[in-house]
Automatic annotation (TrEMBL):
This is Luciferase-like monooxygenase. Coiled coil: none annotated. Residues 17-304 form the Luciferase-like domain. To bacterial alkanal monooxygenase alpha and beta chains. It comes from Pedobacter roseus. GO terms for molecular function: oxidoreductase activity, acting on paired donors, with incorporation or reduction of molecular oxygen. SUPFAM superfamilies: Bacterial luciferase-like. PANTHER family: LUCIFERASE-LIKE MONOOXYGENASE. Pfam families: Bac_luciferase (PF00296). One of its GO terms (cellular component) is cytosol.
Length: 334
């Protein structure tokens, strides 16, 4: 299969600020900055963080602060959220935070929005307090944000300062078909979480494209797919490195979440057949192998689904191996 279809595809990074076993969140932030700086040098388009709470192995809970840290340590790469979980926040606060970021780092900040809590129900209740049982209007909250960012809001009684009049791209994130319809209706770019929720990917992007309404923000549908990537010099080494992410997803399935573990030679000692099938289903859109192997599989993926941009997320324990994977992956798009 010809590989020319990767030539014009933007490639980006999703970083969950994964905490490694034996290390701290402070260590994670340093390696994230190192990875972001390398990604910038390698031509990656954007570097996003996702809002999660009450997860020992994920340190991206204060997402806007991390975005500022990474943007301040880089020069040109776009930095943003994949995403901010809007039910956890008043739109005004989000507008002010991202207005501040966009004022500090002009033309570099992305605002990806999700409707999930990004955590468990008990933690969601702790975040939302008395608002926990209130109806959350994700579409209306997006409209509120768009209004707060607009220059025409200058005469309103509630204004986002800073934020008003700034060009901050809003993305709709999704792992189901509901988000696809919303992104299409509002004429916004759509990022799908195929790295952990592959089931509705094909259906969702079809709904998005078929129902897309051009807007002032976007003339044609734009799909970004997030996928798992573990690249190494050989298929065998990549498979070994991928044992870390497989154990992480096993923890999600069994409810025994842990810090990211080092790679092991034989993952089969950690799961039974049903657990293995469940993990492999969640990791269906994963690209694991040498550069040659991933290029062939990724080209087929892009040709099949016609995605406009690929976002990679890589849960690799060894930082040097992670940097090497990031470099191999970027090389596929040259």
């Amino acid at each position: 299969m010809a590989d020319h279809s990767l030539k014009n595809i933007p490639y980006s990074v999703l970083d969950l600020a994964t905490v490694l076993d034996g290390y701290t969140a402070a260590d994670t932030f340093k390696t994230s900055l190192d990875l972001a700086q390398q990604s910038e040098d390698l031509g990656y388009t954007r570097y996003w963080f996702a809002e999660h709470h009450n997860m020992a192995g994920v340190a991206s809970s204060a997402t806007a602060i991390l975005i500022g840290y990474i943007a301040g340590g880089t020069k040109s790469i776009r930095v943003g959220s994949g995403g901010i979980m809007l039910p956890n926040h008043a739109p005004l606060i989000v507008a002010e935070q991202f207005g501040t970021l966009a004022s500090l780092y002009p033309n570099r900040i992305d605002l990806g929005l999700g409707r999930a809590p990004g955590t468990d129900q008990v933690t969601a209740m702790a975040i939302r307090g008395e608002n926990f049982n209130a109806a959350h209007h994700f579409p209306k909250d997006i409209e509120k944000l768009q209004q707060l960012f607009s220059a025409s809001n200058s005469r309103a009684s509630v204004r986002a300062i800073p934020g008003e009049g700034l060009d901050i791209p809003i993305w709709v994130l999704g792992s189901s078909t509901d988000s696809a319809r919303l992104a299409a209706e509002k004429g916004l770019p759509y990022a799908f979480a195929s790295h952990f929720a592959p089931t509705y990917f094909e259906q969702a992007i079809s709904i998005y494209r078929n129902n897309f309404k051009p807007s002032a923000f976007l003339k044609e549908p734009y799909v970004m797919a997030c996928v798992n990537v573990v690249a190494a010099d050989t298929d065998e080494e990549a498979e070994r490195l991928s044992s870390s992410v497989k154990r992480m997803f096993l923890g999600v399935i069994t409810g025994k979440r842990e810090l990211l573990k080092p790679a092991i030679d034989d993952i089969n000692q950690y799961w039974d057949r049903m657990e293995k099938e469940a993990v492999e289903q969640m990791l269906y859109y994963s690209f694991i192998g040498s550069g040659e192997t991933i290029k062939e599989n990724l080209t087929a993926f892009v040709n099949t689904y016609g995605v406009n941009e690929i976002m990679s997320t890589s849960h690799i324990y060894d930082h040097q191996a992670k940097l090497h994977s990031n470099k191999i992956f970027a090389g596929l798009f040259d």
